[in-house]
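User: Here's a protein and a ligand (magnesium ion). What would the complex look like?
Assistant: Let me lay out the input and then the predicted complex.
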Amino acid sequence: MSKRRHSGSPDLRGKPAKRLETDAGTSANDHAPVLLSYPSTSSQQQSTRAVPFQQPTCLLTFSYTPQRIMEFGDSALRYYIDPPPGADLRYGYERWIKRPEERARLDTLLKAIERVLHISDTNMGPGSGKKWLRDIALVTWRGVMTKILTAPYEERDSCVLNAMLVDGTLYLEEHLTDARLAEKEDLPTRQRQQTYYGYAFESWCTSSRPGVPERIHGHPTGWGGDVDTNVQWCSVVKTKLGDSRLVIGGEVDCVREHFNGQPDNFVELKTSMSIRNAQDEARFEKKLLKFYVQSFLLGVPEIVVGFRTPAGRITTTQSFKTIQIPRLVRGKPHAWDPQICLRWGQEFLASLKARLSEQASSAQTGPSPTYSSRVWRVTLTPGLGVSVYPLDEEGVKEVQGGEDRVGFLPSWYFEQVAEPAEDGSVPGQGTSGSCDGTTDPT
Ligand code: A3P
Ligand code: MG
């Protein structure tokens, strides 16, 4: 918490950003002004006004099969079960089926939204789905929203996003360059093993049936099955931050006992190094910010943490109630305050939307009819703030990646939701395509 923070005016347009090497392997535009600086994270300066955050409700769930096909339904749903004592997180490493790193597209989340629109049109009359969507301020993955909300406290990693504003709704995807994807694919062995620990914990803690440890021939009792990171169960929720309605999708690790259609029984699983001293404890409590934000965004009420040895053996597990986590860190030197994150999130959304709509309305009267296909690069830099600039043709091409897209949105989606231009044509040039399941529901 000793890091320099920028406080003060929420709108500092014109202040030049330094050249920034980002963790996406790109550099931010040299001249992109800082749109918004982070708030101070020191607790004395905070106002007491709480930012309302509505309890998320589940719109629908979907699963990814081992073939990475997205299907509506709960084929990938798993049930929580206590792991066996001393569970070994190295178990099955050599059999891990690792999903290849890919661009973090919104496609399957958009497929889910398309379904919600269709259901709405069927039940409430044609056009009611689009009317509902027009009221949604933001559509994104939970992982993106977590990075945005925790940015005031982030000390290491930049977050690079692509943004589009279509018919009043903001869409955000994480921007990953080919270089960054290759880097993620080619992790050093040690890091790869550590990443596996998290997935192995998920296998030890889940079963295909509620309350019954998995028994698979040839494996120790309680092993939930060899890890295949293609398989995921996802929830799409709607919620509200301040005045902004959000639709967020993300992976849910498992449920306790049964799934009742809402997040009430969702469980998030996490691993962390065992705590041996005060320094470890402080480190863990700082990490709780991400656990907390990640979970509450989807309405996940419980987080089970498996504490492990450096060699990957579980020593203890502890269940945390998500809403009680902020209380655990309050008043400590390394404390974080969720209200700072929420207020920041609200400001971020308002400023970004204002910036993008300003441009949209001026472009509308200009020569280009494709204003809503404009793509923006949004960079959140630790200790500095957010910069935003519109991509040039080259940049948009890179984002499209040679696929049938308008910006980063698949054409089949864009054509459904973009407002027709004056002459009745839809801005953008793509033809209908199909959803191929390239997403990263984190
Ligand atoms: P842990 O969080 O227990 O380390 P999630 O908890 O978000 O569902 O993610 C499950 C696991 O995926 C993580 O387990 C970790 O092993 C891996 N993982 C998630 N995000 C990661 C990241 N940014 N870098 C490396 N591994 C990650
Ligand atoms: Mg998890």
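Summary: The first strand starts at residue 34 and ends at 37.
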